Amino acid sequence: MQGQALHRFGQRLVYRRPVELSETETSSARILTTLDLVALGVDYTLGAGIYFLAGEVVSNQAGPATVLCFLVAGLSSVLAGLCYAEFGSWIPCSGSAYRFTYVTMGEIWAFITGWIFIISYVAAFYYLIGNQISQAMRESVLLHVPHVLVEYTDFFAMGLVLLLTGILALRAKESVLVTKVMTLLSLLVLSFVILSGFIKGDLHNWKLTEEDYIKAGFNDTSSLGPLATCFYAFIGFNNIVTKAEEAQNPKRSIPMGIVISLFICFLVYFGVCSVLTLMVPYYLIHRGSPLPEAFLHIGWTSACYVVATGALCTPFTTILNDMFSSRQMILVMAKDGLLFHVLASTHTSKDIPIVATVVSGTMAAIMALFFEFIDLVDFMSVGTLFTHSLVAACVLILRYQPERKNEGNEAQVQEENRPAAEKLTLQTLFFPGSPTPTPLSGQVVSVCSSLLALLLTLLCLVLAQWPHLLSGDPVWITVVMLLLVLITGVTGVIWRQPQSSTALHFKVPGLPLLPLLSIFLNVYLMMQMIAGTWALFGVWILIGLAIYFSYGIQHSLAMDDKCQTSDDHCGKV
Question: How many helices (H) and strands (E) does the chain have?
């Protein structure tokens, strides 16, 4: 009896939601086009970091090398975006990485993913209010604000969060027109910045001499901050995936929206960081409002006010997008039974999740009082990198799974009995007999993917000790070579397995290499974080697991009548 109970408990943890259930979910209105989704992604990304984060990284961490930092972060984001794009073709529904892991990896991983996204979205719009707007307010040269607001910015941030929470609760739907207007305004302002920066820039600022540093009283030029901080600038495509149920043609527009918005944002970040370091020596760049101060430095005072206006207008739509995404994630998880059912309560006439909206807004208001800005930025980066790694692994697993046909119990029985006729041998491991995926080949890929995730994590931990590697320490070099050999061998096993031939609007090219490269870059960037960030991340995960094991596991979809009638069905993809 205890063995059976333990078996059922394990099945509940790895219960995988069928793809068909996700595909049949409906939304109240499908109004978003591909252009709308691109506008949402660009508005979110540029509003989140271009006006303030670039100055923080340039002045305090990387200097002119910021363009290279954004290049690395952009590459990681593009790889993650490709994985999201393929999954958006497979499963066009809201919930983003949460739904993807629910379908592929199981319920426990889905809960962890959704739980991380909730705090990431909440921390994101607190960061926008508390850091970007408050720091801009401190610039009395640009904005003449009451002195009391400058002195008590944390309380102002908390009040503004609560105000926007009320606005979000009263809205009947997303104002796509406002988002388009704000995106267009932002692109016009940033285009002006890039063009004028190349005109007024000085190449000497990229060729600073020792005399320049001595004259500025700047002695330490060797430090380089965490690369993962730049990654926060490219998380806008998450917002696109959460709008899947509102898209007119999600299987086509979601992949296109992700790829196009990431490409546009990378070009803008690259251009702005380049001209910023050309206009002003990087050690003189103002961290709070770098672009307006750069124009003050070159004597273009009027342009300073134009840029400041764009810097203040854009974050507001981004804040509302973050608040919408956080409440939507809470709503989806509550409907799935993983969070308290009361969080799924909606306004009867407007169908607005009032409770989820209030909860997310309250969490942000609390953060506005007790947490530092940079800690939340790093925390958001760790959480996002972790979930992106899960999505890359999900793509790797799902592409090698056999097609499911849930047309009746007979079809399920036939599919479940098929693995009994297959035997795993060394020959079938490298030379599968079937040109299409089978349950056995799918299981091989699942196990190998888990093993690769472990090996890549160990490799990143070793590479974090790069001084020992550069010194030629034979022990560390031997460990690296052994890990590379194992990774190559396991990757070869996955490469030999047959892939699914299901026609999709978009597929990640170069499987299995690109998803594995995405996982490697994400994990390596995560290793750059300090212990305090990991401690905050661990505490949040422990709180979530306590909620899941005390409530979610007893009320989840695994307790549905259909699942209770078939224990095997609850553990299948």
Answer: 28, 0
